[in-house]
């Protein structure tokens, strides 16, 4: 009976997403625009932070640390912080020896740098104790490290070990894939699942780097450069959220030539916004109820304290009292 109930409660699997129209043309167009490699991710991405001349395990650990620092942080700050760590010594043993406060100072400028310093210390100790100082390549083992999510784990696998277990989706990939209507999702994890349904596996390692750079240079989250985009004619959302342009009108110049000159449309007189009049039955409700303003209430309470102390003249409140109340009052005298 329990088995039947549990089976009935299971949600049916969603059908696989079909290939979007013109996705190959869009891919080729974006790939062509990315040939310049002028995005920050091309020179300061996490795969560029590690020392490629070092041994495989050292490079894997440095890439892992860079990925941990990259969360909520721009590529430039991540790259600079990783370089400071490399100058200190970015190995498992060195990260175990260093004090957490000193490590946090080296990470200053990175988002949540104090928390990430603790993550790096704990991760280094886990690698030392459970993996004999060697960075694991299995997805399940990587996900056990504090502060490491599915996106970081997949990027580490691809960059350091050449293993492809899935598509790494960050904010740029999630946003652009929805704009191109390659997916219809509300979070990066749903985007990853839908992309893996139809995108050929040979392109899984390329899509993250390609779309991140595309999002940094052309398809920006704010003020995208749709006019400079080579696939705007295929993009269903091209110019949809571009800043609105001023309306222009054409007219013939004084010389009588047939050429039209662009001129800004003159704005008409601004409409005056009438102030809403308060109904008569609602006027002076505060006074009728006998309530006091914050200033008067604060000052009257202050006078009561003074009367208890038998002080005839009220001095202004102290700065501490003003800061606590956030009210500035004038000097008053007792009657």
From TrEMBL:
Its cofactor is [4Fe-4S] cluster. Its EC number is 3.2.2.-, 4.2.99.18. Pfam families: HhH-GPD (PF00730). The keyword Kinase does not apply. It catalyses: 2'-deoxyribonucleotide-(2'-deoxyribose 5'-phosphate)-2'-deoxyribonucleotide-DNA = a 3'-end 2'-deoxyribonucleotide-(2,3-dehydro-2,3-deoxyribose 5'-phosphate)-DNA + a 5'-end 5'-phospho-2'-deoxyribonucleoside-DNA + H(+). InterPro entries: DNA_glycosylase (IPR011257), Endonuclease3_FeS-loop_motif (IPR003651), HhH-GPD_domain (IPR003265), HhH_base_excis_C (IPR023170), NTH1 (IPR030841). Its main location: nucleus. Keywords: 4Fe-4S, DNA damage, DNA repair, Glycosidase, Hydrolase, Iron, Iron-sulfur, Lyase, Metal-binding, Mitochondrion, Nucleus. GO terms for molecular function: 4 iron, 4 sulfur cluster binding; class I DNA-(apurinic or apyrimidinic site) endonuclease activity; DNA binding; metal ion binding; oxidized pyrimidine nucleobase lesion DNA N-glycosylase activity. Bifunctional DNA N-glycosylase with associated apurinic/apyrimidinic (AP) lyase function that catalyzes the first step in base excision repair (BER), the primary repair pathway for the repair of oxidative DNA damage. The DNA N-glycosylase activity releases the damaged DNA base from DNA by cleaving the N-glycosidic bond, leaving an AP site. The AP lyase activity cleaves the phosphodiester bond 3' to the AP site by a beta-elimination. Primarily recognizes and repairs oxidative base damage of pyrimidines. This is Endonuclease III homolog.
């Amino acid at each position: 009976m329990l088995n039947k109930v549990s089976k009935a409660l299971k949600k049916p699997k969603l059908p696989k997403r079909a290939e979007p129209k013109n996705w190959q043309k869009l891919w080729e167009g974006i790939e062509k625009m990315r040939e310049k490699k002028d995005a920050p991710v091309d020179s300061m991405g996490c795969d560029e932070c590690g020392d490629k001349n070092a041994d495989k395990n050292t490079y894997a650990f440095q890439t892992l640390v860079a990925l941990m620092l990259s969360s909520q942080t721009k590529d430039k700050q991540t790259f600079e912080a990783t370089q400071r760590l490399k100058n200190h010594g970015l190995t498992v043993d060195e990260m175990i020896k260093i004090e957490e406060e000193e490590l946090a100072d080296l990470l200053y400028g990175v988002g949540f740098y104090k928390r990430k310093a603790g993550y790096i210390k704990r991760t280094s100790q886990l690698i030392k104790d459970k993996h004999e100082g060697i960075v694991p390549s299995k997805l399940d083992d990587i996900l056990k490290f504090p502060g490491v999510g599915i996106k970081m784990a997949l990027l580490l696998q691809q960059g350091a070990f050449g293993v492809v277990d899935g598509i790494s989706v960050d904010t740029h990939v999630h946003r652009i894939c929805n704009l191109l209507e390659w997916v219809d999702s509300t979070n990066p994890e749903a985007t990853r699942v839908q992309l893996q349904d139809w995108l050929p596996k040979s392109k899984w390692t390329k899509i993250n780097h390609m779309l991140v750079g595309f999002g940094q240079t052309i398809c920006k989250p704010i003020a995208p450069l749709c006019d400079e985009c080579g696939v705007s004619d295929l993009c269903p959302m091209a110019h949809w959220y571009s800043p609105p342009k001023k309306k222009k009108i054409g007219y013939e110049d004084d010389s009588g030539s047939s050429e039209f000159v662009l001129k800004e449309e003159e704005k008409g007189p601004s409409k005056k916004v009438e102030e809403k009049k308060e109904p008569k039955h609602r006027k002076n409700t505060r006074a009728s109820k006998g309530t006091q303003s914050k200033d008067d209430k604060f000052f009257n309470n202050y006078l009561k304290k003074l009367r208890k102390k038998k002080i005839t003249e009220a001095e202004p409140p102290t700065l501490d009292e003003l800061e606590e109340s956030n009210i500035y009052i004038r000097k008053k005298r007792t009657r």
